[in-house]
From TrEMBL:
The chain crosses the membrane at residues 68-86, 98-117, 123-143, 186-207, 240-261. It holds the Pfam family Ion_trans_2. Keywords: Ion channel, Ion transport, Membrane, Transmembrane, Transmembrane helix, Transport. Belongs to the two pore domain potassium channel (TC 1.A.1.7) family. Residues 14-23 have a biased composition (Polar residues). It is a multi-pass membrane protein. GO terms for cellular component: plant-type vacuole membrane; plasma membrane. Residues 1-48 are annotated as: Disordered. This is Calcium-activated outward-rectifying potassium channel, putative. It is found in: Membrane. It comes from Theobroma cacao (Cacao). GO terms for biological process: potassium ion transmembrane transport. SUPFAM superfamilies: Voltage-gated potassium channels (SSF81324). GO terms for molecular function: calcium ion binding; outward rectifier potassium channel activity; potassium ion leak channel activity.
Amino acid sequence: MAREDASQPLLSAMTDSSLNETKAIQRRKPQRRSMAPSEKGSQEQQRIPSAINPESALVAQEVRFKYVLLWLASYLGIGTLWFSLIRNQIDGKKTNGVLDAIYFCVVTMTTVGYGDLVPHSTLAKILACIYVFTGMALVGLIISKAADYIVEKQEILLVRAMHMNEKFNAAEILMEVETDKVKYKFLVTSQLLLVLIVVGISFLSLVEKMEFIDAIYCVCSTITTLGYGDESFSTGVGRIFAIFWILSSTVCLAQFFLYLAELYTERRQKALVKWVLTRKLTSSDLEAADLDHDGVVSTAEFILYKLKEMGKICQEDVLPLMERFKTLDVDHTGTLTASDLI
C-alpha cells in the first residue's frame, strides 16, 4: 500500500513533465494564422525560452570574434616582423618584403606550404617550425570561433530566404534555427565554401593568368592544404588576395567537414530514437527496465530504460543516483519529504 501511495506523486510529476514537454514542442512549430500585433508580441516572448536568448548569444559571439581578430592580427604581426628581418634567409619567388612575409606566415600557419617561399638557414627553419605549430593551434582553437560567428549570423538570413513567401515572425525563425541548428550551419558553410571556390578560381584565371584547369587544381590543393607548389600565387596582387582567401577557404572547408560529421551523427541519433520509441516491448525488456525488481515497471523506470537504449545515459549513471536516493529516503516510503531531510 505504501508502495502505491509513493508511486502516485512520481506518476503525477512525470505526467506533468511530459505535458509540459509536449506543450514546449508544440510551441516550437510555426503557427501560420494571422494575429494581432499585440498577440504576436506576447507569443514571441513565450516561444523564445530564456535559456536560448539568441540575441545575447550573438552578442557574446561578436565579442569573441573581435578577440579572434585581435589575436590573429597580433600573431600575423609577430610573424611578419620575424620573417621580414630574415627575408634574406628565405628563398623563392619574391615580390615585396613585408607582403612576402605576411604571405609566408599565412601559407605556413594554414599548413598549405606551396614551397614557393622556403627557409634555407638554420634560424629561418627554427622560426618556421615554431610558427607552424603555434599557427595550427591558432587555426584550430581560435579562428574556428570566427567561422562559427559568421555562420550563425547567416543562419537567420538563410531561414528567412527559405520561408520568404510564408508568414513567419522573428521568434518562429529563431526557434527554427535553434531546432535545426546543425543542418543550417552545414547549408550556410556549403554556400560559403562554394562562393570561395568560385572566387578563387576566377581570380587565378583572370589575375594570375592560369589555365582554367590549373586554377581549379590550385584551388583544390590550397583549400585542402595539400599545397603541391607547382601552382601558387606569384604576383603581388595575387599574394594580397591569397592572405585573406587562404585563411577563409581552409577554415571554411574544415568547418564544412565538421558540420557534415555532426549532421550525420545527429541523423543517426534521431533514427535510433525513432526506433527505440516505436519498437515492440518484450518480457525481457520489462525485466531489464524493472530496476527495483518488484515485478512492476513504473513510469520513471520505463523512461530510464528508454534513455539508456537511446544512449543518453548508462547504468553507471543511474546506480549512484538510486543509492543516493535510498540514503536520503530515511522512512523508506519511496519519496523524499521534509521529514527525510531532518
